């Protein structure tokens, strides 16, 4: 299934409407159109990392600098970033607003995504990271705004899981 | 040379810069010279000090950012050299103290021991233009002065002995360090803005 052009646009607008102009990311298929927009928008500062854990450090630096920041990654990237989330963000009470492509879930045709998809929610629960699902393009903008607000008030990582319903046409 | 000599020599130069250190000896040696509100000590999450430095440098172009890293930490995040090379923050100086040892966790030899792995070559290979590889305090001092004057991303690999302080401890909780560091940056931004107006 193709990645949704319209919904990628809606999500990007939601990020901007939340007042966020700084993004760190590791590209993946569902996030491709979104990242293309971020790259093309002169108002938005995008850093592509080599591995998702780096983005936790970059997000901490942006937070110290007083710059609203958002992390874009796949759920396997979340798994790769856990030590940074625990021993930097949570240990030092640094907020993270994470938009995570939930691969390997209902309808997943690719075997290689499935294990990561199956464990993602339980890992988030084990880490005490509040999360919501984003399914509806009419709600996702508000959800991004609320995720960001909650991360800042709780000084905690917060995750919005981008589902297949939203990301594919 | 010892890392503590290097840090002591550059300490006056750090007074007005944002400094991020790794855990253990490097953090303690800087703290023992006198904590400043513009110092942040990353006491865990090995490898991410330079990523924090990138986040700071990119969003605070008027600040000078210094990262005090180590071989054990940087080996856990070698991708950081590639990311730094790609975005080239001009206001970042990344110093890697290479003691060939995981000193803070029992002194096991790291991969850089006896020159098997050359961190300066890795940094160059990642695409970082200005990389110094130094082994004496004099060379270190020169490399630091050059890096600060250059106003371009600089990496300094400093080969030091595997020794650290006798006592560890800070009179500061970890989140407290984060809160104070952030507040310090906010105040510096406000001061710079009022000076400009």
Features:
heterodimer, A: 169 residues, alpha/beta, Rossmann fold, 6-stranded parallel beta sheet, B: 197 residues, 8 helices, 8 strands
Tell me about this structure.
Chain A starts with a helix and ends with a helix. In chain A, strand 1, helix 2 and strand 2 (45-48) form a beta-alpha-beta unit. Chain A has a 6-stranded parallel sheet with strand order 2-1-3-4-6-5, sandwiched between helices. Chain A has one domain: 3-Layer(aba) Sandwich (Rossmann fold), CATH 3.40.50. Chain A is globular. Chain A is built from 8 helices and 6 strands, in the order H-E-H-E-H-E-H-H-E-H-E-H-E-H. With 169 residues, chain A is an alpha/beta fold. Chain A has helices spanning 5-17, 32-40, 52-64, 75-80, 82-90, 111-127, 140-154, 164-167, and strands at 22-25, 45-48, 69-74, 96-101, 131-134, 157-162. Chain B is of the alpha/beta class and 197 residues long. Chain B has one domain (3-196): 3-Layer(aba) Sandwich (Rossmann fold), CATH 3.40.50.970. Chain B is built from 8 helices and 8 strands. Chain B has helices at residues 3-14, 25-33, 49-59, 71-75, 79-87, 119-126, 137-150, 174-196, and strands at 18-21, 39-41, 65-70, 92-98, 101-102, 108-109, 130-134, 154-159. In chain B, helix 1 packs across helix 2 and helix 1 packs parallel to helix 7. Chain B starts with a helix and ends with a helix. The mean pLDDT of chain B is 95.
Short description:
The complex is a heterodimer of chains A (169) and B (197). By secondary structure, chain A is an alpha/beta fold.
Order of neighbouring strands in the sheet with most strands of chain A: 2-1-3-4-6-5
Would you tell me which CATH topology of chain A applies? Rossmann fold
N- to C-terminal distance of chain A: 6 Å
Under the CATH scheme, which architecture of chain B would be assigned? 3-Layer(aba) Sandwich
Structural class of chain A: alpha/beta
Largest sheet geometry of chain B: 6 strands, parallel
């Amino acid at each position: 299934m193709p990645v949704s052009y319209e919904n990628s646009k809606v999500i990007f607008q939601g990020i901007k409407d939340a007042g966020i102009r700084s993004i760190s990311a590791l590209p993946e298929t569902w996030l491709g159109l979104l990242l293309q927009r971020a790259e093309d928008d002169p108002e938005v500062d995008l850093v592509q990392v080599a591995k998702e854990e780096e983005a936790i450090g970059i997000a901490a630096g942006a937070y110290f600098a007083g710059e609203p920041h958002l992390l874009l990654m796949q759920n396997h990237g979340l798994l790769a970033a856990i030590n940074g989330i625990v021993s930097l963000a949570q240990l030092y009470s640094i907020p993270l607003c994470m938009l995570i492509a939930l691969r390997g879930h209902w309808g997943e045709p690719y075997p290689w995504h499935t294990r990561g998809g199956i464990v993602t929610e339980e890992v988030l629960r084990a880490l005490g990271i509040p999360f919501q699902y984003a399914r509806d393009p009419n709600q996702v903008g508000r959800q991004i705004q609320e995720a960001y607000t909650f991360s800042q008030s709780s000084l905690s990582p917060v995750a919005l899981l981008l589902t297949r319903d939203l990301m594919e046409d | 040379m010892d890392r503590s000599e290097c840090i002591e020599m550059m300490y006056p130069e750090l007074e007005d810069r944002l400094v991020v250190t790794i855990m253990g000896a490097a953090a303690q040696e800087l703290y023992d010279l006198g904590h400043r509100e513009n110092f942040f000590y990353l006491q865990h999450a090995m490898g991410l000090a330079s990523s924090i430095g990138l986040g700071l440098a990119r969003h605070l172009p008027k600040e000078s950012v210094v990262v005090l890293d180590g071989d054990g930490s940087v080996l856990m995040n070698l991708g950081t050299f590639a990311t730094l090379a790609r975005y080239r923050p001009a206001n970042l100086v990344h110093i890697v103290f290479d003691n060939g040892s995981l000193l803070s966790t029992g002194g096991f030899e790291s991969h850089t021991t006896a020159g098997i792995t050359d961190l300066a070559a890795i940094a160059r290979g990642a695409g970082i233009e200005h990389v110094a590889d130094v082994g004496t305090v004099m060379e270190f001092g020169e490399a630091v002065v050059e890096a600060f004057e250059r106003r371009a991303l600089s990496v300094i690999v400093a080969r030091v002995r595997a020794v650290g302080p006798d006592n560890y401890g800070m009179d500061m909780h970890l989140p407290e360090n984060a809160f104070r560091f952030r507040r310090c940056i906010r105040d510096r931004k406000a001061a710079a803005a009022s000076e400009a107006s």
